[in-house]
Structures are given as C-alpha cells and as structure tokens.
Amino acid sequence: MADNPKDIAIKPGDFEPLDQQAGPDNERIAAPSLTFGQDVWRRLKSNKTAFTSFIILVLMFLVAFGGQAVYHHDPNAQQPKYANLPPKIKGVDLYGFNGHLKQSGKDVDAYAAAGAGKDVHYVLGTDYLGRDLLARIMYGTRISLEIALIATLIDLTIGVGFGIISGWKGGRVDLFMQRVIEILSSIPQLVVMVLMATAFTKTGMASIIAAIAITGWTTMARLTRAQTLQLKNQDFILAARTLGESAPKIAWKHLLPNLSSVIIIQTMFTIPSAIFFEAFLSYIGIGISSPQASLGTLISDGQKNFQFLPYQMWYPAIVLIVLMLAFNLLGDGMRDAFDPKSKR
Amino acid sequence: MKNPENIIEVRDLEINFHTYAGEVKAIRDVSFDLRKGETLAIVGESGSGKSVTTRSLMGLLAPNAEIKKGSIMFHGEDIIKKSEKDMQHIRGKDIAMIFQDPMTSLDPTMRIGMQIAEPLMKHKGLKKKEAIAQALEMLKLVGITDPEGRINDYPYQFSGGMRQRIVIAIALVCYPEVLIADEPTTALDVTIQAQILDLMKDLQNRIDTSIIFITHDLGVVAGMADRVAVMYAGKIVEYGTVDEIFFNPQHPYTWGLLNSMPTLDTASGSLRAIPGTPPDLLDPPVGDAFAARSDYAMKIDTEKEPPFFKVSDTHYAATWLLHPDAPKVTPPAEIVRRQKKFAAMQKPKAPISNSDSKE
Amino acid sequence: MPDARKKILEVHHLKQYFNVGKRDEVRAVDDVSFDIYEGETFGLVGESGSGKTTAGRAIIHLYEPTSGEIIFNGQDVSKLHTKKQMHAFRRQIQMIFQDPYASLNPRMKVKDIVAEGIDIHGLAKDDADRTKQVEDLLETVGLNKDHSSRYPHEFSGGQRQRIGIARALAVEPKFIIADEPISALDVSIQAQVVNLLKELQVKQNLTYLFIAHDLSMVKYISDRIGVMHYGKILEIGPADEVYNHPLHAYTKSLISAVPVPDPEFERNRIQVPYDESREKDDKKRRMVEIAPGHFIRASEDEVAMYTQRAVDAGLING
Ligand SMILES: Nc1ncnc2c1ncn2[C@@H]1O[C@H](COP(=O)(O)OP(=O)(O)OP(=O)(O)O)[C@@H](O)[C@H]1O
Ligand SMILES: Nc1ncnc2c1ncn2[C@@H]1O[C@H](COP(=O)(O)OP(=O)(O)O)[C@@H](O)[C@H]1O
Ligand code: SF4
Ligand SMILES: [Mg+2]
Ligand SMILES: [Mg+2]
C-alpha cells in the first residue's frame, strides 16, 4: 500500500496552488442524458426475446395491414372448382407445398385433379369455397387485430380514467367505484357476449368489441387505481399541490406519465387476450359472421376439414399462436425494461 | 487492535461496472485489512464505493460488475475465486451482513422466528425445534421485549428500530467471524440509532466478531470504530486508528468531513461545507479525484495521483500535502483545535505502536 | 423578548387526527400551539412518528385540520375560500421535502420541475424569460444551466435536494417549511444544504419552519426550537437554551442520543433514558413559560420543579 514517496519524480511548479475558479467543474455529470423513453428502448433492445417478438409483431402488422397492396387476391372471391386445394408454391417440390395430397394412401396431384392450369398456385391453398387461404388469413388477421386494438383502446380509456378518479378521490367515491368494478368483473365475458348477441341482431365487430370492452377495462382500472393511490402521496405530487396546481393538471402532468409504464405493460397483455377472446367467440359461432373472416372463423372453418386437409386449420392457428406469444413475450420484456430496479 | 491477526486482507481491488454509457470505475485500487475482534469503519460520501467493496466481500456484486484486479483473502483463500456454491456456505455463517433498509432485508411473508432460525438450519444443520429455541435466545439478546409473544409475528408488525434489531439477530445467529454492517442506522432516527449502536457494541463483546462498519456519519464512527478508513471516489484516501483520524487527520477530504459537522463546542454560524459533488466515476478525473473540491489543490493534483504517505505506523494518507517538498499549509481552525488535542493526548503515555509492517 | 417582532405564523391548539371515530384513530398532532416570527427559523424536532410532518402539512393546508387555528400573515388559513385567495396563499408558503428521490417527478426535465411554480402562477413573460428564471434559480442553488435539460435520476441526493429548493424558490415565497431536508443526505452534503438555506434566508428574507430529528443540526440553523413527542410539543425555547440547558426530560434524552464526532467524548457518553409513562398520566398539562421565551408543557404541580431546574441552569434568578 504505502508506496515509497521518494521515487516520485516531481517537476518544479508542481506544488503551485491551483486556481479553484478556473479548476475543474465539481458538479459535472459525465453520462449522456437519456429521456425515459430512450432508456426503456435501450433496455428493451438488449432483451433478445422481447426484441425478436417486437420485430415479429411489426412484420405481422405490416403483412396484415399492407399485405393486400402486394398480394392482390380477393379474400372473398369464391372459385368452387378450385375448392380445397392444398398449398402449392412455384418451383418447390416438397410434400405439403407441391399441391399434392394423400387420398386413401395414394399421392394425388390435387391441382391436376381440379383441372387447374400450370400457372395456378395457391401459396397456402384454398378453403372449401375455393377462396385463397393466404389472402383470407391476412384479412382475418387484420380483422382480429382491429378488433383487439379498438377494444383495448376503449378498455384503456375507460380503465385509466376510472382508475385515476377512483384512486385520486379516495374515500366514499373510491369505495363506490370499487364496488362497480367488483360487480362487473364477476360477470363472465361469455354471458355478456350472449347478451350482446341477442341485443345486436347480427353479431359482428361492433358486438365483439363492446363485449370485450365492457368486461375488460376493470383490470386496467384496478391497476391504475393501485398505482394512483401510491403516487398521490409521493412528495412530487404534494409539491405540485403546494404550488397550487389543479387536480386535472396534476393528473395530466404528474400522474399519467408515471402511470404510463403500468398502462403500456397492461396493454401488452390486454391485446392478446382480446385477440384470443375474439377468436374463441368466432370459433363457437357468436362472433364475426361471414363473409367477414377473423382468425377465429378461419380456425373454425378449417377444423371441419381437419382430418383430410389439416393445413386449413394449422395455418390460421399458427398465426394466432405466434401473435399471442409475441405479445406476451414483448409484454414481459416491457415489464423488465420499465422496471427502474433493472437499471443499466 | 490488541491482536494483529488479519481475518480479511483486501489487496489492490479494482471493480468496474459495465453500463450503456461506459465503464463505471467504482473501486479503484483499494487495499485494507480487517483484524480479529476489531471494528473497522469505512467512511465516505454516497457513491464513494463503500457498498460495492463490502458486496465484493460477500460475493454479491451485481451481474454487470467485473473485478478487474486484486484479491480478497479470507482464511488464506481468495474469495474472488470461489464459486457461488462455496460462497453460500460462507455467507451468513462466517461472514454476515446487515443492510441499510430494515424493511427490504426481511421477508414480509415469513414469521420472524423462522427467519432467524433459517440460517441455523441451513448452516448448522439444526432441527427446526432447536433452531427456533436458539432464535428465541437471539431475540432476547437483541432486546426485543416479550420475545416469546413476538416470535411468531411478521415484520410489518414491528417498528423500524425493532426490525433492525431482528435483522441483527438474523446476522448474528450463527456467531459469524465477520459482520458487515452497511449503514445499519442511516434509515433510523437518532434515538433509535443510539440504541442500535449500543446493541452492536454489546454483542460484539459477547460473541467476539470483527465488524466492518460502513457509514457516512463521522459521529457514529467516533463511537464505534477502532480503526477508520476514509473512502473517496472509489479509493481509500486515509486510514488510521480512530484517534488518529479524528484528532490528527492529514487528508483535506477528512478535514472537510470533520469540518462540515457541528460539534458540541463549535459556535453557531456557517458550517464549512465541502463544495460541489463527488466526481462521476464514469469518467474519473486525471490526478487526485478530490482536486476539484479541495481548497488546497496544487498543480500536481490535476496530473498525478498521490501515493500513500506514512504518518505513523498505523496511519497513512494519500495526499500530496504530505510530500516533503510540498508547502506547509494550515488546516481549518477546527482541525488545528483537534490536532492540539492530539498532541496533548500523546504526551502522557508513550505512543502504542502496532506492529503492522506487512504492507 | 422577541414579541415585538411580527408573527408571520400563529398555530393555536392545532389537532390533526386521522381515521377519526374508527378503531385505528391516530392523533398525529394533538393540541399544538406555537408562533413563528418573521425572518426567524423555527426548528421542530422529535423522533419518527411524533407528528412533525403532519404538523407541517397541516400548516401548508395539505390536510384539513381536525380542529385549531392556523393564522398566516394575519389571515386564518381555514377561511381561504375562493380560488384566488388559495392561489395567493400557495405562493407565500412553500415546502422542501425529506426524500430527494421521491420529491422530483422522474419523468420531467429539471427545467420543467423548477419552472412548475412559474407556470402555475404565470410568472414568466415568455419562454426566454422562463428559461432565464430557471437558469438563475439553478445558479442560486449552485447548479449549472446545462443541468436543466437532464432528468432527476442523473443527480446525486444533494443535487436533487437543491433542485427541490430551486422549485420552492421559484414563486418567491415568504415562508418555507423544510421537512427533514437533510436527513436523507450525507453529512458532508448536509452542511451544503444548511448553508444554502441560511444564505437564502438572509438574501430573500425568508422564514423557515425547519423539521428534523437530529438536534445538533437544528441547533445551527434555528433561532428557536420546539420539541415534539407523541403529537404534542413538550418544550419551546431559544435554540441555544434548549440545546445547552434542556428543561424537559425528553429533550435531555433526545440530546444525549446525538452522536458526536469525537472519540473521546463518545467513549464517555451516557445515554439518558426517558420514562415516557409520566406523559401518559391523566394530568392536565399546558404550555407554561418557565423562563422568558422558554415554555414547557407541564401540569400545575410540575411547574415548581421546572422552575427549580431553570434556576439551577441559570436561566432565571431564584
Ligand atoms: N394519512 C395518515 N393516515 C393515518 N395515519 C397517519 C397519516 N399520516 C401520518 N399518520 C400517523 O401520524 C403519526 C405522525 O406522523 P408524521 O409523519 O407526522 O411523523 P414525523 O414526526 O414526521 O415522523 P418521521 O420522522 O418519521 O418523518 C404517525 O403515527 C403516523 O403513522
Ligand atoms: N450495479 C451497478 N451498476 C453500475 N454502477 C454501479 C452499480 N452499483 C454501484 N455502482 C456505482 O459504483 C459506485 C459506488 O457505489 P456504492 O458502493 O453503492 O457507493 P456507497 O459508498 O454509497 O455505498 C457508484 O458510482 C455507483 O453508481
Ligand atoms: S492530493 Fe492534492 S487535491 Fe488531493 S487532497 Fe491532497 S492536496 Fe487536495
Ligand atoms: Mg451504500
Ligand atoms: Mg416526517
């Protein structure tokens, strides 16, 4: 530890006093300044699973919403003579993608049997009405996503507003609002849907969205309320109050930004459950009705032919699974990225 | 102090943290010894590296930490080289730790009796019944009133001071050789702090452990420590016996610390604060890290880091002011007052020289 | 004594109970009275849970007091009904908080934090003026103007506390309640903040209510000290008198607990225990002026004892 001070070379002038005014800044911060968003993005990027999920979701959104611009096939155009054709990709000679089928143990070229020309190929095959399955999946995914996004947005608006008011007001107001939530969340979603189905003459997007939104916002409200209760006694909120800030402004400037992580994370889990609920309803037949398609109706249609033409159910099911997995994994990653304790 | 046997020897320790903004050089060449039965206080501002140092002794560094250099010898073996599994045998049994926040270091869902008994079952292989019986003894020892009635309570049923007593009970239940207390009283108010400090001193006498006591409060150090190491910006800048540090400090940072505290007989008026903030360890300054805040800084301080200069056999300080060629400066009045007291203390008895020429 | 000076704050029999009428009723502040004179620093000390924060928050009207009167600048605070009156009141009293990590909104830039009061009260002519005011305030508390675009988490505890002070100063208040502004800081940084507060007091003619649990620092910054325990004030007097000649047993015990950076003193320290059972007997107690300006909460039969103590301490002639 103790070096021998005699070995140190000292230059003349070394022991001149240092001018403190001109000296180094003693309040300096060396790290670059990151906004909260940048910080979260940086941590999210370093989480491989979450980031991969994010990329997959971006791609799926692009295909679902922009795919039709590239892949010009009408998802509703029926061509009965081309019904139930298996997938066929040009230049690929691999069972499952070459348009061949096994019928009673024999390998049959389904396209030839249907009398389709050389240039006819359906990348993911066709359904029982001869509609292009790829086009239908793209379309169905879009509808599913639209339903989920709109329902989630409604969830979010009602839930966050309700939660903030309940938590901020406290006391009797809070007590009453909590009872409302308890009652609502004790009703199963399915019951609401059946009620909706009878209320709306024809079930469709609107009724599904209504059903999901009516029952779904309570979780968001609960989380927001809990967080608001915690935040409202934080010193920075008290500081705003002592400065004379009004309650709505406090909610906007101080509460919302600090609730944003909870809201975003919860959204990440609400979307997939909305997608799944929609699929489930459509699958059991009280959801989207034809000619509209959603992942649920596609799976339901495909299931009828599952024994012979399993691809008709597999492809939409895979899309559904990937979508749900990606949202959930991204949600998990977001939770870590937003957690101040997982700093650095 | 009476017994120079070293239990822990830390040599040339350097620890970096990898962060998005670069490497945080948290520990920059730290060496010290812990002797049997003594209390070594490590004092320094927040961010000076006290916690990182002690966490490295426990093998509990964050995953983004990298030990660049150095060794930590415990019973002749290097802790740094030990596996996580070996460390688990040492932690809680041979080296125990008390953290700053008594709430987060207790499991909120577990009865306190069980929490105290757990290390006994794990390290000593005791049966649950025996372990609980010993836990009860421990609760008595740390001064919980009605221990029989409270052994089955949960942490939230206790006040902050009581919780810290329980944390101490857990740490000491295996009679560890070394107890590391990282700011154990910072979260408590003075009244409770006084009780906890008395308790720690009392327990140290009874079970003969060595204590590394971490704090930023020199008042607390004065009552607890046998020896003191002052840390600044990831380095030890001065170390010596408690009397040497308090009555004959040599480093301007130590002067600043002592000067910024009100004492019984300092008259009212402005306190002498150390200006500014400690340097950002992401980019530590060239030369002495304290130069930007030191009233005594010289040209060399922005160019070269000072080595340790010997003040006595037990007292070293890393400041250029101790270089034989450096100009003689007058420390602040409060320090001069203290140094006079030191001179007076030295006279009657011959200085007790400790043999520690191992460095 | 100082009675000739103007009282900026008068607190009369303030009671602040929580969960009134329920089983878990807490009497956080229970019949507290004191005055604060313009330009002085009044220190309020006591252990954790004694009701210091609650008292401070009741004064600044974050709580609706259970009973009692708070008169600020001659005006009864509970009678501020219109929005405009409340707004004006908010500009005059400000608060500095204990926890430098919780007191700044982590999602806001320093400049917006500091400018919050400026925005609310419309104190800036335009954007340039706002920026200038913020930069001046940062300089006042010893920070640089390039700190203004950073976020709170980038600062150390002492720096954050100074940002909090800048925020409070922005509305040019007359009276500042500092709730343990140094308890969470390193000792070396505590002196910085204490010095800054003292300097500001002189420059801007501020009055402080300074809350703390550590008597040694409070003694430095305060002119007068009030000692609180279990929601009641037990002793009020000039700072030096309370610190050097405490009359109440609780104050003695509190002072004996303060660690002193002197190993010799510490080796011989004796901690004075306090028997709190006496406070809980059912005797009627009120604040009695034992020595000039030095009040003790005492029952009639205790007055003689305290007077004797004051005589022994040389505060009054026997
Ligand atoms: N909103 C509340 N509801 C119920 N009890 C409360 C509330 N706020 C404070 N209390 C209680 O009032 C008492 C006084 O609390 P207060 O925060 O004023 O203490 P303090 O003296 O500031 O302590 P500290 O030093 O810990 O800050 C405590 O028992 C506390 O638990
Ligand atoms: N997990 C981590 N990642 C990055 N930097 C860290 C980490 N832990 C500590 N540091 C840095 O190491 C330095 C010393 O920290 P610490 O030992 O906690 O200080 P203290 O003396 O207050 O206990 C600080 O600059 C701190 O920011
Ligand atoms: S080495 Fe130089 S800058 Fe560092 S403490 Fe000594 S005199 Fe001050
Ligand atoms: Mg620490
Ligand atoms: Mg408080």
List strands and helices in order, with pairings:
The complex is a heterotrimer of chains A (344), B (359) and C (318).
Chain A: H1 36-45, H2 48-70, E1 100-103, E2 106-109, H3 110-113, H4 133-169, H5 171-186, H6 189-199, H7 205-232, H8 235-242, H9 247-284, H10 295-304, H11 311-338
Antiparallel strand pairs in A: 1-2
Helix pairs in contact in A: 1-11, 2-4, 2-11, 4-5, 4-7, 4-9, 4-10, 5-7, 6-7, 7-9, 8-9, 9-10, 9-11, 10-11
Chain B: E1 6-19, E2 22-35, E3 39-43, H1 50-58, E4 65-74, E5 77-78, H2 84-90, E6 95-98, H3 112-123, H4 128-141, H5 147-150, H6 160-172, E7 178-182, H7 190-207, E8 210-215, H8 218-224, E9 227-232, E10 235-241, H9 242-247, H10 252-259, E11 309-312, E12 315-317, H11 333-346
Parallel strand pairs in B: 3-8, 3-9, 6-7, 7-8
Antiparallel strand pairs in B: 1-2, 1-4, 4-5, 9-10, 10-12, 11-12
Helix pairs in contact in B: 3-4, 3-6, 4-6, 6-7
Chain C: E1 7-18, E2 26-37, E3 41-45, H1 52-59, E4 67-72, E5 75-76, H2 83-92, E6 93-96, H3 110-114, H4 116-120, H5 127-140, H6 157-169, E7 175-179, H7 187-204, E8 207-212, H8 215-221, E9 224-229, E10 232-238, H9 239-244, H10 249-256, H11 263-267, E11 286-291, E12 294-298, H12 303-312
Helix pairs in contact in C: 5-6
Your description of this structure?
The complex is a heterotrimer of chains A (344), B (359) and C (318). Chain A has eleven helices and two strands; from the N terminus they run ααββααααααααα. Chain A is mainly alpha-helical. In chain A, helix 4 packs antiparallel against helix 9 (247-284). The model of chain A has no long low-confidence stretch (mean pLDDT 84). Chain B has eleven helices and twelve strands. Chain B has helices spanning 50-58, 84-90, 112-123, 128-141, 147-150, 160-172, 190-207, 218-224, 242-247, 252-259, 333-346, and strands at 6-19, 22-35, 39-43, 65-74, 77-78, 95-98, 178-182, 210-215, 227-232, 235-241, 309-312, 315-317. Chain C has one domain (7-312): Rossmann fold (3-Layer(aba) Sandwich), CATH 3.40.50.300. In chain C, helix 5 (127-140) crosses helix 6. The model of chain C has no long low-confidence stretch (mean pLDDT 91). Classes of the chains: A mainly alpha (344), B alpha/beta (359), C alpha/beta (318). Chains in contact: A-B, A-C, B-C. The A-C interface holds A 25, 27, 29, 31, 33-36, 234-236, 238-245, 253-254, 257-258, 260, 340 and C 57, 60, 62, 86-87, 90-91, 93-95, 97-99, 102-108, 116-117, 120-121, 142-144, 147, 149-151, 153-155, 159, 164, 167-168, 171. The complex binds adenosine-5'-triphosphate, adenosine-5'-diphosphate (ADP), iron/sulfur cluster (SF4) and magnesium ion (2 copies). Iron/sulfur cluster is lined by residues 251-253, 288, 290-291, 294, 296-298, 301, 306, 319-321 of chain B. Iron/sulfur cluster binds at residues 251-253, 288, 290-291, 294, 296-298, 301, 306, 319-321 of chain B.
